[in-house]
Amino acid sequence: MRRLLATLCLLILAHWSGPAVAQPRNQLGPLCTTETTPADKMVDACTKIIALKVFKGEQLATVYFWRAVGWNKKGDYAKVIADATEAIRLQPSQAVYNLRGSAYYDKGEYDIAISDFDDALRLGPPSGTIFHNRGNAWRGKQDYAKAIADYDMAIKADPKSAFSFQNRGISKEALGDLDGAIADINQAIRLDPSLPQPLINRTAIWRAKGDLDRAIADGSEAIRLAKEKPPVNIMTPPNSVLISGYIHRALAYEAKGDYARAGEDYKATLAIVASDAGSKANQATARVRLSLLTDASAPIPRDAPSPTTQPTSAPAPQQTDAAPTQSPAPAGRGTRMALVIGNGAYAHVKALPNPPNDARAVAKSLRDIGFSVSEGVDLDRAAMQKVTRDFLRAAARAQVAVVYYAGHGVQVDGRNYLIPVDVALKPGASLTEAMIDMDTIMAGLDDQVRTNILIFDACRNNPMAQQVASAGNNRGIEGASGLAAPTSLGTGATLGAGTLIAFATAPGQVALDGEGANSPFSAALSRHIGTPGLEVQQMLTRVRAEVVSTTKNKQVPWSNSSLLGEVYLAEK
Predict the structure, then answer these.
(1) What is the pLDDT of residues 13-35, one digit of tens each?
(2) Is Aminoacyl-tRNA synthetase included in the keywords of this UniProt record (predicted)?
(3) Which phi and psi angles does 331 have, rounded to 5°?
(4) Of 294, 235, 288, which is closest to residue 446 (Cα–Cα)?
(5) Residue 23: exposed, middle, or buried by beta-carbon count in 10 A (0-12, 13-18, 19+)?
(6) Which of 209, 240, 400, 572 is the right S-S partner for 533, CB 3.0 to 4.6 Å?
């Protein structure tokens, strides 16, 4: 995720010359405009200079620029954008557009970032730094061909740019060219052996190749370098490199079966202060995976500080089908695994007739194409927690992981929850503690070297409304209507690379349970998921077309993808 700025900062600094009042005895000017000034001191000095009200035009734009740099060091991207926007109003420049574009990039707003980088390039002269940063934004949009083209331009401008080689390698990895990726990452390491970031990226490639010993060795060296010489570039979020090093080494240890060392690395990840979206996503993953390693009986924690889960009053035990009674053995590299759950026999809301049938049909289709399937039907909270934990634990070494859920679902405060059959929906109760947090499942699976396919036929109406009197035969419990679009993994993070998530209907809409034995969505899914040689997104397009036709346009399935290439669930 490396962004570059240093050379453009020099251009801004060259314009810094102000009246003597701007540099009183406490030397506000140098504190404001020196790249190595600590963030708080930089922001404070620039704020005091602005308060003097002696600058106008280009000089005042310079002060706003440097305060934006200070906010960037603190990871406060909204304030970066606000100050950079004011600087652009006063005096547009390449450096300010580059800084604002980089802040939009960090917020995951890639189209706006690209627009800012375009404006920076139009102001001229051509800049390898800006080509590099625009390449990052194209990579964020998963347009790897355009990303590679921009990195080519950056390397042409600066053949010694280690980070441009590194990020071009990451883009090649996303396109499946692991050997080309290794070559670029190796060149980045040769250009600057002191940088931890290329080693971290090579760690991920070794894991993708199944060479866990090399992955661990690279991760260890990256952590050593990050501790020895923390990155000082103002565009690198604080602690992000060290957090990334720990999470990648932890995942390698876990894949190798060294759970003690994996656990220590997950703890180290969580002990570091995170400011940027990527680091928070890594910590969300560390929190879930640490819980899986350290306490097999504990509920999966939500992505929140000091999570607590309170038991709820439960009805008589529910019947379950094919729920694992013990943790599966660790999956071998290349294993394709699936978790399939169908909940319909709800004790406190009107039952849904079709989810058990839907789950059985999808589970059979997945088994027929070679998946190892953990299947559960009509699961209460304890059983649903167990089958989910067991699956997440075993999936650490899987190449492809599929999660399918049919039943009630709810959106509460923008987060999605899956509903066990024993949840008592009482007004005023802390219902979310009794449900399964979808974001937590996503965080537990988040790993760029594995393909994750998550499918939810759970967009039904709200049994919580009017104390479940009008629940009906539909599958969504709405804090708001339908389920929310899954734009994040944990707090502030983008959907993890290598993940596709599909809903039976669009965000905020409700889906039909169906008049027959299966819902319209699951019936179509079970028919098409096993089609040989059909790429998964093309498969979902066929499912969508069938559902739209069957429901006479009342239901339109929806999906969001950050897959890093074509994925085929059934062999060609």
Answers:
(1) 434 433 333 344 356 788 898 88
(2) no
(3) -75, 145
(4) 288
(5) middle
(6) 572
Report the alpha-carbon distance of residue 238 to residue 32 in Å, rounded.
19
The span from the CA of 534 to the CA of 104, in Å, is: 36
Mean pLDDT of 336-345: 95
Q: Which two tokens stand for residue 571?
A: 């062999």
First to last CA, the chain: 35
Q: Give the whole-angstrom CA distance, residue 414 versus residue 437.
A: 11
Helix (H, G, I), strand (E, B) or coil at 498: coil
Q: Residue 499 belongs to what H/E stretch?
A: strand 499-503
Instruction: Indicate the average pLDDT of the chain.
Output: 82
- The region, left, alpha or beta by phi > 0 then psi within -120 to 50, assigned to residue 482 is left
Q: What are phi and psi of 122, to 5 degrees?
A: -65, -30
Gap between the Cα atoms of 408 and 456, Å rounded: 10
Q: Which of 8-12, 36-40, 52-56, 126-130 has the lowest mean pLDDT?
A: 8-12
Structural domains of the chain, ranges and CATH numbers in brackets: 1-192 (1.25.40.10), 193-294 (1.25.40.10), 335-561 (3.40.50.1460)
Is 562 in contact with 506 (CB distance < 8 Å)? no
